[in-house]
Amino acid sequence: MNYINGHLIIFMLLALVIMPLVTAEILRLLGNYTKQRLVDNFGNNSQIVIGGLGVIIHELAHLITACIFLHCIGKFSLLEPRAYQYTGNLGYVNHYWHAGNLYESLGNFFTGLAPCFVCSEVLWMIHGFLFSTPTYNYSGAYNLSGAFKLALTNVMYPFGNFSWQLIIYLILIVMISSTGYGLSSDDMRNVYSGLPYWIGLLIIIYILVAFLGLSSGLITLLWKATVMWLTFLGLGLIYIVTSLIVIDFVAFCKNI
């Protein structure tokens, strides 16, 4: 077995633990602020009328990820158009797992984070349909500068030329971003309950990589992961800030 490579261990933690957590936390805070701006400007019902699509995507992300990790699904509702006024829940997914099952417990990490990344992916797919944008490019980064350049290239196509497609896209950005990114405190508790299992899996992966002498291949994958998280963060920021600007602009015009 190769000696312990401290730099590789730190890189793994940065690329596969810290970056996804930081990305989700930034998007969560901005997403919740945007949701609050929506409510402040247009009332509680706006979360359903305007942000209903974002709520559905948010809950679907939880639901699908929980199923992937074999959680038992209890009751769920992708959108609560009436009951939310009494319960405060726009939607919910009740899922259960066996605490002794490592795979199911690991799933909490990904189930909690899922909406932040699914919302960006859905909006990117819609953008590709409306404007035929290129696919993501995660390869070719060998240092931090290269990773930033690739990520910047990936987020340089948030909008097309002014057209009816752009109007539709802006509407969809508001409908999804205003509510979809806002992770709840329960979501974050799920994330951190699954974090030890994720770190444990990474330790096992590191030992296998070191034993098999595959460090160079792992480093390549880690650079791709770095570009991916930077891309998701950049796209999420663009979508949420755009949503916030549109919400405040419409509210301003309404009050003139």
Describe this structure in words.
The chain starts with 5 loop residues before the first helix and ends with a helix. It has 256 residues and is mainly alpha-helical. The mean pLDDT is 90. It has helices at residues 6-42, 46-49, 52-68, 84-87, 102-131, 144-154, 164-180, 185-212, 215-255, and strands at 72-77, 92-96. 36% of the residues are buried. It has one domain (6-44, 110-255). The protein has a two-stranded antiparallel ribbon. Helix 1 crosses helix 7 (164-180), helix 5 packs across helix 8 (185-212) and helix 6 (144-154) packs across helix 9 (215-255). Keywords: Membrane, Transmembrane, Transmembrane helix. The chain crosses the membrane at residues 48-73, 109-130, 162-183, 195-223, 229-253.
